Amino acid sequence: MKTSLIKKIEPVLVILISIVGFFTIKELLPTALYFIMATLVGLYFFPVRIFMNGEKTMEDNQTKIGFLITSITISLLVFLSIVVLYLPGSGFFRTILILVSFINIGQFFYYLWHKRTYAIAVLHFCTACVSSVALYV
């Protein structure tokens, strides 16, 4: 029960970050709000999510590695969106954001077509929204 609720809330958190990021770019919300929310979501996806779901849902090493790469990719995209928002002229961080976005889209198609894990595919799609909002700057 708790795991299925968390899987339903994760895409909502990422979409919320996208919406807050968009309104921050349009200067309707303060950048500190986006910074705090995105930092909390980014920290959730990398260390907290891994420790919460660690050994319970993993059957084999391939699933563990996929879960770890997914968590790192999403967390990295969220943190890079913060950096790109604060440094809009930085071509280096924008390039890294684009490269990680391609990795994210690759994971989206992998989980959608190969693994048929739709909850994770939806999460990667929502994360693509975060990267597109960050690249809008």
Description of the molecule:
The N and C termini lie far apart (39 Å). Helices cover 84% and strands 0% of the residues. It has one domain. By secondary structure, the protein is mainly alpha-helical. It has helices spanning 2-25, 31-53, 61-86, 91-114, 118-135. It has five helices and no strands.
Order of helices and strands: HHHHH
Overall form: globular
Radius of gyration: 15 Å
How many strands? 0
Instruction: Provide the helix percentage.
Output: over 70%
- Low-confidence sequence ranges: none
Assign the structural class, choosing from mainly alpha, mainly beta, alpha/beta, alpha+beta, or little secondary structure.
mainly alpha
Counted up, domains total 1
Mean pLDDT: 88
Largest sheet, strands/sense/barrel: none
Cα distance spanning the termini: 39 Å
User: What is the count of DSSP helices, taking H or I runs of 4+ residues?
Assistant: 5
